[in-house]
Amino acid sequence: MAVIKKPVIAGNWKMHKTIAEARELAASVARGFPEVSEAALILIPPFTAIQEVKRTVSGTDIAVGAQDLFWEEKGAFTGEISPLQLKEAGCDFVIIGHSERRQFFGETDETVRKKVLAALNHELTPIVCIGETLEEREKGQTLNRIQTQLENSLFALDASSFSRVVLAYEPIWAIGTGLNATPEQAEEVQAFIRSLIASRYGKTLADYAIILYGGSVKPNNALSLAREKDVDGFLVGGASLEAESFLGIAREALRAVRD
């Protein structure tokens, strides 16, 4: 029997929104939430706005996350933020290993592994990003790259720990470019990811694993992507900066489940 999951729609606001703007956006999403309440919504603002967003969506089932964390609880790590601080601010989720962190700030599979362990140790759900560059795709290296990232950053976890991880496949060439993987391209990679999970942890855990797609997702392409068997929701960038487009993606994901 197929596993029916609640679509997960996470909005990564990146380095956008002042506290006042974040409050307004979160309030707009909260007002529209009743119509998409069958989906799991996660708002991921910049660090400065986490507490305000958490207050704004209190009383709803909308979750709040952070865009990164450091693997130590405290210390002389200027500019970093700890899992303890994120929990106190109201976070339930944290993005780890986003391609922009890898590209601009030296994130590696090893630092991803350490951050995932820190998140899990402090009851934060990691949303771990993996994906290939355009060059890797054009050279036919996509699946090898995905397998390497998983093996180096996650597959040392035991089954219980791995079951608490959310994965996000984000082809790097599709992030912020206006391009997106076709539904067939997304499904090929996400089915491959699920097969690797099954090989490592067994079919049951693989069936229940949450694998999101990210990369220029919009309301007008969300339905076709969400209809793919191994796409369990979306990690949304630019389209999460307006409530209507973010909610529109959630509506389309729910439509795919209902169809």
Task: Give a structural overview.
- By secondary structure, the chain is α/β, with parallel strands linked by helices.
- The protein has a single domain (8-258), classed as Aldolase class I (TIM Barrel), CATH 3.20.20.
- Helices cover 46% and strands 14% of the residues.
- The chain has helices spanning 19-32, 50-56, 83-89, 99-105, 109-121, 134-138, 142-153, 159-162, 183-201, 203-208, 219-226, 243-258, and strands at residues 8-12, 40-44, 63-66, 93-96, 125-130, 166-169, 210-213, 233-236.
- Helix 1 links the parallel strand 1 and strand 2 (40-44).
- The protein is globular and about 45 Å long.
- The two termini are 17 Å apart.
